[in-house]
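Changelog note: in this version the structure field was regenerated for every chain. One regenerated record is shown below for reference.
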Amino acid sequence: MFRSQVWLSRGCPIRHYECRQASEGDGVANKLVKTGATPISQQNENEQVSSFSSNLDAALAGEGTSGQELLLLSDEALALGRVQDARALVNKALETDLTREHVARFLLDRARQSLSAVASLLSPGAAETASELVGMSRWYDFDASTSIYFRKGTALPSSGEPVDLDQLSISGLSAAVLCLFGQQLSSLRILELGCGSGARARFLADCGASVTVVMPNPQDARAVAAQCAGLPNVQVVYDAPHAIPFRGIYDVVLIAGYHEVYAGQASVLDPLSHLLKKANTALATDGCLLLCGYNPLALGHFNDQRDHYGREGAVALEGRFTDGGPRLWPAAAVAKALAEAGFPHREHCALMGSLEKASLLVSPAGCSAPVEQWNLETLVRRSLRRQEADRQHRFSESRLLQSVLQAKELTAWSDGYVFLAHKTDPKVLAVDGWLASSFHISQDNEPGAETRYKAGSGGNDPVVERYSLGSLTPDAVAPYINGPVYRDFLDDLLQEPGWQFEQVLHWAALWLRCLLSSLSADDSLVPEGEDGGRYQGRYDLWVPQDLFQATPGRWVGRDDGSFECLRSIDGEKGTAPMAAVLYSGLMDTLFTVTSVAEPADTLWLEPVKLIDAVLEHLGYPFHERDLAALSQHWERVTGTPLAAPARLPARQVLRSLTDSAKVYWATSAEGFSEKNASADWLTLDGSTQTLRLPITPGSSDEGVVALRFDVANRPGCFEVEQMALLGSDGTMLWQWEHNREVISGVQRMALVLDPQARRSCLLSRGNDPQFVLDLPENILASAAGAVLEVRLSAWPARL
């Protein structure tokens, strides 16, 4: 039974209804009968119409009319056959505090019209909204106590452990993606499959989107409902996300890692394809899929890191996933699956850096933009582990990333990937000309701020835009790059044999120019007190407090990992002399250097002399009074005296690592074996070398039918410039064009091919990396007595 006394804002009762189930002969699902009065059909029609018109005018004009009152009045309009008036009342009800689900369920419960007719009650602009709500009411029941929809014919399981909202947070990957597209999400209809804690759904709703979340278990559904409590534009559904019944409704379908979890539990043959095709059917004609995941081929695994799910990198690379465990796909496999699922238009982005801390998104434009290449390299290498004093692995990382960038395969080797896949044009979302996005997590593990790099005018320096969650427009724009990048840039410079003072001076001048260019007259702070007299109005020697983030390093580090800025020395409006900024930055940078290459002049191995000379040439001499102030502050914070960096340890020569490369040949009599092999020594020190591997079958009657090249017996990075088969007289029988067609049987390595540059990078993450050369039969027939000549450079890897 449904009973409701309805009042307009002026206190005039409309009607008192009783709703009863009608018999099949009534011809409609429900009958509304006026309690204690004659049936509606027997009333004076003119009196009824006049009364309704009066109430209608008052309802549409009154600001205080509740949504429930408007719905009941629309029900009366339907009884009188006034569909246009009913539509106006329903749409006005949608402008009140009622949720869209409440409006749809009210109409469906009355069931005066067919489901399609109920949808027609809404204005044309809200037709898709009606379609979704009608569809949800057809498939799902609603639990008002939890605000969760669940499948008809089933039951919502009872609540388990209470939800601890303090433990819910958004991941760095999700937060970076949301900040990237946040300003484009307003008014979009988004379906998210397996949304985690709900923090992401709440952010989408705060951006103005209408969000439907499908969760695979009741515990997660309750957590999301609790996280999104009070948000009328979030609907939580407890169902299997891969079995979604919605069709052609949503502007965006968001999948952030659910496909990896689903694949470990699915019984279908191709779970990724199955899920992507389901997502396609849920999208409107011009909708798009936003797919985020983790890459098993991440560069981080090259340095002995675990994947996102805590597994050893080698396990993910070899596909040895435990039963029921998440499955990871390379970005190339995901791109292929998207194309097969009906997404012909795709944009991809690479996520670099630590997935648990700050992260960096890189667009396709950023992969090839010269202004970004060194920046990306240093940022990525900073995120990789550096536990060994020996810096050989740093060279390996640098050259490996350089090869990946030049081959335009950054997405294939990034820590994570983001695909924006469109069914058709025009596109709902788009990547808007950005190069890279560095996302930072605040202390409470909620998304804090984003720094977005864009190409500057003329393509010389990137423009940096800083965003925060509170504002989806840039908080500030500054033409400088954060200081840690420059700190690593100097670190790399000091690794070049024969480095000179002029190179260090050039680095310092570049950093200083970037820092000063970010200052304006409005930013300048006037020093007061003793400092004001000391510097006699030379305010160009001062920088505002918020620019300390742009210096090469923080000021003083405590044992607990916290920092205190130099501004505390004088305590005057957060200012500090530029000379002290430069001195502290250089000193902090040189403290981080574990070893350097031999310089042209060994005088510069003394850090204090190097710093003093740099400051003198830049015009900011560091006086004794400045050093005294810095020393006093350092000792107050750390409890230890200020010490200058020790003499920089110079490497006389790089440690030489040797291994053997082999060529194996199979003959008509037997296959590959150690008997049919030859070897040459390989040095893994980055130098260019030429290997000569003779092919000498035991008998002239045994023709060579196949060749196999084992580049080494250990993991490493091998850059091949040339590989050729030379006859016994030195004539060239065959030369590799850096194409994949002649390569097969690749084991424990990945290939990054660059035919235009005529070089390739062999990336080995296991012992005994190898591949087979599929040469034409006429070439193999002349291979007996020939020599396989390989010109390459090699670096070791830490595994």
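Spot check on this record: Residues 658-796 form one domain. The CA atoms of residues 201 and 791 lie 54 Å apart.
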